[in-house]
Amino acid sequence: MAGSEYEDAASQPSTPVDDKRSEASADPVVKSCPIFFSPALRNNIILNQYPLRSANRPYNTQTGEVATGVRIKPKTGWMEVDMPLLTSKYYDPEKATRFGSEEQPLNQQVLSSRLQPPATKLMVGVFRNGQLHIVPVRGISQLRPTLRHVDEKSKRARDIANSSVTRAQAPAREPARAVQVTVKQNTEAPKLSTTPIIRATEGEAWVDYSIGDVEGATSLLRQLECPAEHQLVQCTPK
């Protein structure tokens, strides 16, 4: 009987505590470091993604495609980036003049996106002297090329056509008369209408941002470090 009880006890499955201990022994902690939350660039870090751009062709000085302008609408969250077009390859001067003008042919494209808050808490960090300094990511953009040049060309054509029709069909002036207009408010309009969003977006002004160079990037990298006056020198457990 004793032997049977011993075999039953040995055949029981391991507990979660035992599993955690075995995992800890298989993957031991090799190093620990203090973590600091840097306040300097809080709410100023944006992660830009380019889903239609190959990872082998990033926008940088090596490819000759570096942003020339950046603007954001802070309230509605829209972002636009001006990117030059490579005129050495796959560039048609005739079409560039058609969508632009003789004086200013089309030589850049506009990337656009709406900033979205991260689905999870994303952080940007830097190691300095055995310390990890982190800053939260404010938003994420997925910048894609727009067809603004096509829309602008179509708008110019419509404006010219409408102007010609208006001049040709201008009626004779009639004497002014009073007209009573009654406006009925639609209280049953759907609350999820996109009209207020579109109006807010069109009514908000763009805020231009400057584009830094390598020295500016180095300065921003230093700002990721938490200043000494904000570092917790001693921690007393409760």
Which helices and strands, and how do they pair?
Elements: H1 2-10, H2 16-26, E1 35-37, E2 46-49, E3 69-73, E4 78-84, H3 93-99, E5 108-114, E6 123-128, E7 131-136, E8 139-142, E9 144-145, H4 148-168, H5 195-203, E10 207-209, H6 214-223
Parallel strand pairs: 1-7, 2-8
Antiparallel strand pairs: 3-4, 3-10, 4-5, 5-9, 6-7
Radius of gyration: 31 Å
Average pLDDT taken over every residue: 78
Q: Beta-strand percentage?
A: 15-25%
The dominant shape is elongated
Spatial gap, N to C terminus: 51 Å
Kindly list the characteristics that best describe this protein.
alpha+beta; disordered N terminus; DNA-directed RNA polymerase; RNA_pol_III_Rpc5; single chain; 238 residues; 6 helices; 3-stranded mixed beta sheet; DNA-directed RNA polymerase III complex subunit Rpc37; transcription; elongated
Q: Any overview of this molecule?
A:
- This is DNA-directed RNA polymerase III complex subunit Rpc37.
- The protein has a five-stranded antiparallel beta sheet, with no helix packed on it. Strands 1-7-6 form a three-stranded mixed beta sheet, with no helix packed on it.
- The longest helix has 21 residues.
- It is an alpha+beta fold.
- Helix content is 28%, strand content 20%.
- It has a domain of 151 residues.
